[in-house]
Amino acid sequence: MQKLVIRGEKRLCGEIAVQGAKNSALALLAACVLCSGEVVLKNCPALSDVFAACRILNRLGCKSRYLDHCAYVDAGGMSECAVPEDMMRQMRSSIVFLGAVLGRKGQCELSYPGGCELGPRPIDMHLSALSQMGVKINEEYGVLCCECPKGLHGARINLDFPSVGATENIMLAAALAKGETVITNAAREPEIADLGDFLNCCGARVSGQGTSTIVISGVDKLHGCEYEVMPDRIAAATYMSAAAITGGELDLKNARAEHLGAVIPVFEQMGCRVFSYDDRIYIAGKQPLKAVKTIRTMPFPAFPTDAQAVVMAALTKAKGTSVVVENIFSSRYRHVDELVRMGADIKTEGKVAVIEGVERLYGARVRAADLRGGAALVLAGLAAQGETEVENLCYIDRGYESIEKYLRNVGADVCRMTS
Length: 419
Ligand code: EPZ
Known about the structure:
This protein folds into two domains: 204 residues, Alpha-beta prism (UDP-n-acetylglucosamine1-carboxyvinyl-transferase, Chain), CATH 3.65.10; 146 residues, UDP-n-acetylglucosamine1-carboxyvinyl-transferase, Chain (Alpha-beta prism). Helix content is 30%, strand content 27%. It has a four-stranded mixed beta sheet with strand order 24-25-1-26. Strands 2-15-17-16 form a four-stranded mixed beta sheet. A hairpin with a 2-residue loop joins strand 16 and strand 17. Helix 4 packs parallel to helix 6 and helix 5 runs parallel beside helix 6. It is elongated, with a radius of gyration of 21 Å.
């Protein structure tokens, strides 16, 4: 098992080139299954989840390889329709292969996905939508056997909740389906817009991506293309919080302010100075930080659930009382107990967390329990007095590329060790 050892109280200063977006790259890799020619995905982040998606592609008979932040995928020789359970369990986003494999082959067999322990991760909306498109779904012992005897056809699908994964699965299944599919109450996250733009780059006919209503007119075939993955808005929010909690100054390249419309004001309420221009965001933390009255996580364009933990880390040192309401996942406070071990004053009750700012955090041995909660512990370690060890680095490596290198380059005292 690997861990990070951090010696805190170092003010971060410098420039970070933010990685490509994990939650876009994973959907785009699945979408490659639909393409009959080679796809080159540029700005693809070097993450364990990306490598897991490439392994699934190879298991399906596609040829995928990764080199220098580029993923090369040729699905021309795709020969399989089943994803083994061990591969499905490696990450939540594996479920998005369902729509892509059905779109390409008309059948698919896979088990329920794994992913971070954020609470129940049902896929009822995915399955209900695919059924409306002609998919027959049999579930036996946790394995989903899906087929569409008469082929996939378009449908008008209204989502009860703007689910990111369900929206992606429908788009992927609809790209080569017969007729038109209309998704209402679709997810509006930037990663959805990136997926729609990618599909169009391959010859699909998608419109409305990034809005609540997406229309996909099925085509006969998709060709390959060269496409650049969008920047990772949650990684950007994470590094913004690193500047805030250490009172540092960071200039983030490849960070789009329009993707962080609900996050930037929170850092400004904390007293940080934030400037954005082109694809750059500059942030200067100002000590002491000020508490933020209430943060409610909701679907885009509201405050993203994925930024909740990393912003909470900064709030632990913000003067006053901050309140966070986590509305998306039922168990996304697993970082709280670990932050409390470092001296934070946080109380949770159901969806609500109340954070009383403290003067100082103290280094401790803490354990990551999920991706973003693990990142929050790293941020707290940057500001803590003394040495912090963050264990279970495997969670963090799922979503952050070489986090210790990025932080060391801007002045952090952090190294990766095998425990
Ligand atoms: C995506 O997960 C992201 N993952 C998550 O990021 C992100 O937190 C989430 O969207 C919300 O923005 C990837 O893109 C790989 P949802 P997803 O479907 O698609 C419920 C990270 O840290 N729901 O929008 O699983 C679900 O239980 C990860 O990078 C159903 O009830 O999210 C949850 O409460 C964590 N039935 C809510 O909707 C369904 O069929 C949002 O889920 C589907 C979802």
